[in-house]
Amino acid sequence: MAKLGKRTRAAREAFAGKEDITVEEAVSLIKSNASAKFDETVEIAMNLGVDPRHADQMVRGVVGLPNGTGKTVRVAVFARGPKAEEAQAAGADIVGAEDLMETVQSGEINFDRCIATPDMMPIVGRLGKVLGPRNLMPNPKVGTVTMDVKEAVEAAKGGQVQFKAEKAGVVHAGVGKASFDEAKLVENIRAFVAAVSAAKPAGAKGTYMKRIALSSTMGPGVTVDVTNATGN
User: Fold this and answer.
1) What is the pLDDT of residues 200-223, one digit of tens each?
2) Is the CB of residue 101 less than 8 Å from the CB of residue 112?
3) What does the pLDDT look like over 110-150, one tens digit per residue?
4) What is the pTM of this model?
5) Are strands 75-78 and 113-116 parallel, antiparallel or unpaired?
6) Is the Cβ–Cβ distance between 213 and 220 less than 8 Å?
7) Between the CA of residue 34 and those of 8, 62, 124, 128, 214, what are the distances in Å?
8) Cα–Cα distance for residue pair 1/87, rounded to 1 Å
9) Rounded alpha-carbon distances, angstroms, from residue 84 to 110, 143, 144, 183
10) What is the C-alpha separation between 120 and 77, in angstroms, rounded?
């Protein structure tokens, strides 16, 4: 068994016995133990009482975090003509049509968010096997298939986070950086939880939010009280 480093041991000791605590307590604990040489991301993982294999139990949505993510998001836009110009003016990193499709098909994916105008979807549709597994496929439900390219690019750059339940019913996302002020992290976390709560599908049975855990990139996780996190 690998020997744990001093920082890892100290963090685990600090987290020992802590569970179902308030969001505020969890954020304070995570921030004080985020000791990596880089600015760690604060991550949330939510275990939901859904089975996403059933269409009426899929959880999917988007939320604009009030204090941003602290992450630089590279945005690609599939558009032509005036809409391509609009995307570039809004700050998109990559803009194209067939040429962008060929770039993606070659395995070159240098972006974190993909937006497309509706008329581009026949082209983008050919990239389903490439973009789908990376959760990059544009989708009108989360505002990434739209004619309002400017708003979509600015939202993506400004701290908008997409979420989607994985096959085990888990939703996870980055909700800020360890360097953020505690109050700003708490605000982001509550906004994310509220968005997932609002996205409860019609087919969800029993307890919807079963477990919520927070962690930093390199640190241990801690569960937070679901009632406290939802504000109920």
Assistant:
1) 999 998 999 999 999 999 988 899
2) no
3) 999 999 999 999 999 999 999 999 989 999 988 999 999 99
4) 0.83
5) parallel
6) no
7) 10, 27, 40, 37, 12
8) 51
9) 18, 17, 14, 38
10) 10
- How many CA within 13 A on the CB side of residue 133? 3
Residue keyed to tokens 């990239």:
127
pLDDT of residue 1: 40
Sign of the C-alpha dihedral computed for residues 148, 150, 155 and 161 taken in this order: positive
Task: Put residue 72 in one of left, alpha, beta given phi > 0 → left and psi -120 to 50 → alpha.
Answer: beta
For residues 174 and 73, what is the distance between their CA atoms, to the nearest angstrom? 12
Radius of gyration for the alpha carbons in the chain, expressed in angstroms and rounded? 19
Distance of alpha carbon 214 from alpha carbon 30, whole angstroms: 8
Provide the b/e sequence for 140-161 (b: ≥16 CB within 10 Å): eebbbbbeebbebbebbbebbb
> pLDDT tens digits, residue range 92-121?
999 999 999 999 999 999 999 999 999 999
Contact assessment for residue 150 and residue 86, using Cβ atoms and an 8 Å cutoff: yes
